[in-house]
Amino acid sequence: MLGLTSVVLVAIAIVIDLVVGDPRSLPHPVVIIGRAISALEQRWNQGSGKRRRLLGFLLTATIVLGTFSLAWLSLVVLTWVHPWLGLAAELWLLATTLAIKGLAEAGRAIAVPLANGDFASARNALAMVVGRDTEQLDEAEITRGAVETIAENTVDGITSPLFFALIGGAPLALAYKAINTLDSMVGYQNKRYSDFGYASAKLDDMANWLPARLTALCLWAAGVLISWHSSALYWRRAITATCREAPRHPSPNAGWPEAMVANLLGVQLGGTNVYQGAVSHRATLGSPLETLTFSHINVTIKLMHGAWLLFFLLMAVLMSSAGAGGVWL
């Protein structure tokens, strides 16, 4: 499939996500992937460390390759039945890999009650998208959680799926979502998952390596554009500060969008979080030039929209110039 055609189809999928989002009435592929992971994890995550690591590799290969193969085969069959049916399925599957509308809505669900002084509702909305305890958080900490979530998920939920969708269509984009779901379910450094989830965590790190860094660059460019038209952001030193601070994050990839957003906003992210009563300390990113308030959530949403749009345009130019769209049908 020619690169220009792949760009057009992904652009249509973006519009579908922006308009429709993820309707709860329709089955979502990630839910099905998650159920498969859960079922296999219960059967295979047992035995010695070496056995667990080996079975973890098998889980990763089974889920990722199975997701790609099933998506590819389904599109082949549906296209054989009727080309328009295959096209509709391709667009729907592509749209399910994106979370542009959902991420923006999640951010606004926190910012709106926070702006009205309704801390209880803001805490509840934040608890829907983070794992940390939110009951005792003040405005600054609620805002920090929201900003960190939007920044990190700009990669996981938008730019990385776009990257793989443009390279390999819905099958590869769904394979990426399988990788991401595996990491979110078994990629933990604890007694239960440190061995079993090793392969999943490492593959997720590799899959997001390039998109995370390109996203940070696109966030910076979006910050420059926003500064020209509305509130001024601290973009002049953001790139050098981000390159210095991003490696402090425990994730090799999440630190790049988070550090860039922190430095653009002139705020400090990271620090102390509490998970089910257990205190966790993370390195700080950015400098506290401003006190975190609900307005920073709204600006972060603007940065997110600017970043994915610039990322898509960059990839579109590269794909159209190359004239090839990978393994698309």
UniProtKB/TrEMBL annotation:
Protein name, entry field: Cobalamin biosynthesis protein CobD
Gene that produces this protein: cobD
Subcellular location: Cell membrane
One Pfam family recorded for the sequence: CobD_Cbib
Coiled-coil region: none
Family the UniProt entry places it in: Belongs to the CobD/CbiB family.
GO BP, one annotated term: cobalamin biosynthetic process
GO molecular function per UniProt: ABC-type vitamin B12 transporter activity; threonine-phosphate decarboxylase activity
Function: Converts cobyric acid to cobinamide by the addition of aminopropanol on the F carboxylic group.
Record has Chaperone as a keyword: no
Transmembrane segments: 54-75, 81-100, 162-179, 214-235, 307-328
Cellular component GO terms held in the UniProt record: plasma membrane
InterPro entries, alphabetized: Cobalamin_biosynth_CobD/CbiB (IPR004485)
Entry membrane topology: Multi-pass membrane protein
Pathway assigned to this chain's UniProt record: Cofactor biosynthesis; adenosylcobalamin biosynthesis
Keywords: Cell membrane, Cobalamin biosynthesis, Membrane, Transmembrane, Transmembrane helix
Keyword Cell membrane in record: yes
